Amino acid sequence: MTHGTDHRTGTTTLTVVDGDGAPVPGADVTVEQIRHAFSFGNIGFDFIGLANGEPGVGDDHLADLYADVFNVATLPFYWGRFEPERGHPDTDRLLTTAQWFRDRGIALKGHPLVWHTVQPDWLLGLPLDEVEALQRARIRREVSEFAGVIDTWDAINEVVIMPVFDNGDNAITPLARARGRIPMIRMAFEEARAANPHATLLLNDFDLSSAYECLIEGVLEAGVQLDAIGLQTHMHQGYWGVDTMLAMVDRFARYGLPLHLTETSLVSGDLMPAHIVDLNDHQVPSWPSTPEGEARQADDVERHYRSLVAHPSVEAITYWGITDADAWLGAPIGLVRADGTPKPAYDALRRLVKEEWWLAPTTMRTDERGQVQVRGFRGEYRVDVRGAATAFTIGDADTDVRVIWRG
Amino acid sequence: MTHGTDHRTGTTTLTVVDGDGAPVPGADVTVEQIRHAFSFGNIGFDFIGLANGEPGVGDDHLADLYADVFNVATLPFYWGRFEPERGHPDTDRLLTTAQWFRDRGIALKGHPLVWHTVQPDWLLGLPLDEVEALQRARIRREVSEFAGVIDTWDAINEVVIMPVFDNGDNAITPLARARGRIPMIRMAFEEARAANPHATLLLNDFDLSSAYECLIEGVLEAGVQLDAIGLQTHMHQGYWGVDTMLAMVDRFARYGLPLHLTETSLVSGDLMPAHIVDLNDHQVPSWPSTPEGEARQADDVERHYRSLVAHPSVEAITYWGITDADAWLGAPIGLVRADGTPKPAYDALRRLVKEEWWLAPTTMRTDERGQVQVRGFRGEYRVDVRGAATAFTIGDADTDVRVIWRG
Fold first, then answer.
1. Which chain B residues are closer than 8 Å to A160 by Cβ?
2. pLDDT of B86-130, one tens digit each?
3. Backbone phi, then psi, for B48, in 5-degree steps?
């Protein structure tokens, strides 16, 4: 059973007053929404080239499609790609990219600070104590250098499998095996928290079984403060359906923490066979988007977002790809085709985010007390009164805002 | 790769001295093993009737077969059967049964103090706080009333699934859901430890996935002292094989705690289909033992015990049934047929436990220093010198024991 979306909305009362503070009845004001409080995220990987004036997948047209729907961009901090040569991190390019997104009103998230895959080769063979020291230093470096620009991080990724991961040699699995899962998590959160006390720090996993529950319970018992629980939902093998998804979300909602659906993908082509366990094991020469697949994807996307936005614990949904060009696993999970045209799923999501759940510019007239009540999805708004704009917020609690009428 | 069994053996040096303390060279002594230090366990459920002079499955013949191989009996403390009427626990019958086993040189284990199945009906519908208080009181009662007779307990059973168990209404699942898994474990261990500080207390589970690892790591981080980790291995769907079993054992061995294979079963008939997830869901009108099945079971049992006794972390293997009569799920998992005749698996296990890994009565002659060195599996032994018996132990460390020669 799905919930409604009343919990997503709030009311702000605007009182229009003149220069003496007296209410102005019968005044026309125009209100409109500027930004959702809810995080509608997507990966920003495709725009690193564009932001830095280099060749890349993203162009201005794709950027416009992105910015029209998404308000948070996940940037890649895979250690092995971010610092392929020890001591030469890719900080400048990522900072430029982050700033490029912020200039478009899009907030940032970094992914991930600790993970056992996409590791730098130069870590291999180092003693465990040195690996730990380097890992700690790398967390502090990235989180402090990006503080104020990126204030949300996947502090550590896929810890359930981390100490028993056997699909590639890396320096983190032996460390996790020696130290234990909870000490690894404590390390990641301690270092990131110290480097940016204002950051929102996530534990993130694809394993949504009882194992993740047990891990979270152990972490909470150990007194590590999680700001949100990250739940990956790559659905290359087909949408799980509303009931299964909500039952999963309910299992993790009982910890009373915000839930972030951190990695969502739904294909617009053939489904990956169900027997594949590690999605990375499925390699196909070509995986086209199809008309039937695109119709199914649009339907899946709409049901997925509707049901999750309606769940009170969910605060973020991050889709895992804007375009099919260069998509993960070559899968047609993008919302935009490789040729730059939007798929039906893009249109469906835009319709929800920017129409059904959005307040378009609306003219209202103040009552005898000089007031209008603006009800809408929580987020940032503006009101225009005789050509002068005032920003206001719709939040959890009903709020009053005074707006000056410049006569 | 399997280990050898050298780590299971030790040496005790016996020095035969006369009444003045002088060594007696050239004296004939007879040594023999009395008991294994390793726990070769089995369930003792079938002998409650016999021990109490009531009708039941077990008879003296079955009891002899049992006592010839097994040195630890697991007794049932399922709350719903132990105390079907509130305030009327089955303490006396179980105490009588426990004493009956001890009279035969068999130690006891109680199973389990906390579990979400086989619950008393009278718990249903009570407020959570009352359920918790009753659960705590029941742990204290059983552990203290049986202290000195039963000093090993499955303190809590199947916690991984406990808060999300949905295969039967019970009062413990809601409690576990409200309190969390680790607080449930802490409750069980705290109460049992307080009631019997000398008890060996186990966490026990059938879920041997990463979920159990995560749970154990959380429990250890939370400072709850586990004395041993219990691993269930009901193999109605077929023996997992040595490699899979040892890889599983290795995953749990890294916590540095003793491992108990608490519930082992291997069928001597058709295998349960692999698609069954909850073994309890497989109900068949008849599940016969077959000659081929019995040969396979004997081979499985031998490989299972050989590989696990060879693993340094394993301290106990408990088989889950002596006879097919009234066996769990009607499955032919017994080591003795319903007609009382031993299956090949019984003979195979007896040969290991009482022949290959056992020191039968052996006459030795003291050297010029009046000494003989006795090497064997750790456990309890006796030496007979001119008709007088002296007990001694072979333990981890080499030991010296003086034996008086009564001239």
1. 210, 214
2. 999 999 999 999 999 999 999 999 999 999 999 999 999 999 999
3. -65, -40
Per CATH, the number for B38-356 is 3.20.20.80
User: Is-same-fold flag (A6-33+361-404; A38-356)?
Assistant: no
**CA nearest A255 in B: which residue?**
B180
- pLDDT tens digit string along B156-200? 999 999 999 998 899 999 999 999 999 999 999 999 999 999 999
Task: Centre a 10 Å sphere on the Cβ of residue B268 and count the other Cβ atoms it contains.
Answer: 28
Give the minimum alpha-carbon distance from A181 to chain B in angstroms, rounded to a whole number.
7
Are A213 and B164 within 8 A, CB to CB? yes
Q: How many CB atoms lie within 10 A of CB B225?
A: 11
Per-residue tokens: B58: 């077990």
Percent of chain B with pLDDT over 70: 99
* The domain defined by B6-33+361-404 carries CATH number 1.10.630.10: no
| pTM for this predicted structure | 0.92
Helix (H, G, I), strand (E, B) or coil at B267: coil
Q: Is the pLDDT of residue B1 over 60?
A: no
> Residues A69, A350: contact at Cβ < 8 Å?
yes
Strands A371-377 and B388-394: unpaired
Instruction: Count contacts between A and B (CB, < 8 Å).
Output: 72
3-class DSSP state of A23: strand
Please state, in angstroms and rounded to a whole number, the distance separating the CA atoms of residues B387 and B365: 15
Cα–Cα distance measured from residue B141 to residue B128, given in angstroms and rounded to the nearest whole number:
20
| Cα dihedral value A116, A118, A119, A124, nearest 10 | 90
User: Is the pLDDT score of A117 beyond 70?
Assistant: yes
Question: Domain segments of chain B: what residues?
Answer: 6-33+361-404, 38-356
Of A183, A215, A254, the CB nearest to B214: A215
Mean per-residue pLDDT, A154-180: 96
In this structure, are residues A2 and A352 in contact, taking their beta carbons and an 8 Å threshold?
A: no
| Distance separating alpha carbons of residues B393 and B379, to the nearest angstrom | 6
Nearest CA distance, B32 vs chain A (angstrom): 43
How does strand B371-377 pair with strand B9-17? antiparallel
Confidence (pLDDT) at B407: 66
Question: Strands across the sheet with A9-17, in order?
Answer: A371-377, A9-17, A399-404
**A346-402 per-position pLDDT tens digit:** 999 999 999 999 999 999 999 999 999 999 999 999 999 998 999 999 999 899 999
